[in-house]
Amino acid sequence: MIFTLERTKRTPSVELSENRLVVRGECYPENIAEFSEPIIGNVRDVLDKTEVFEVIFELLYFNSSSAMFLFDLFNMLDDAAGGGCDIAVRWRYEADDDSMEEAGADFEDAFEHASYVLEPRDEL
User: Which domains does the chain have, with CATH numbers?
Assistant: First the structure.
């Protein structure tokens, strides 16, 4: 693992390796910059060195400041895909969570170059 964060009440777990980012849980940190900056920086470093990268989101909730962080992350991923990196994103959500499904569909609109799949799950 290149970078990890443990899940807390307010932040998701984050696992970053040479070819995968997994984000699971709820995301409403008190200080979004303190939470997001190391993630963005480490993902950027990994994307500079890889040709294939997978991203899995299993979020149960996020607030508006976290949405901006996610949007920035999605833009960075799509830029890397536009530059030739094979990026595959899976947005997993609980099958009965319409708001998280809709959020995933909204983020999908940010992508032109990366592949993106909305994936309902029975339980996360």
Answer: 3-121 (3.30.750)
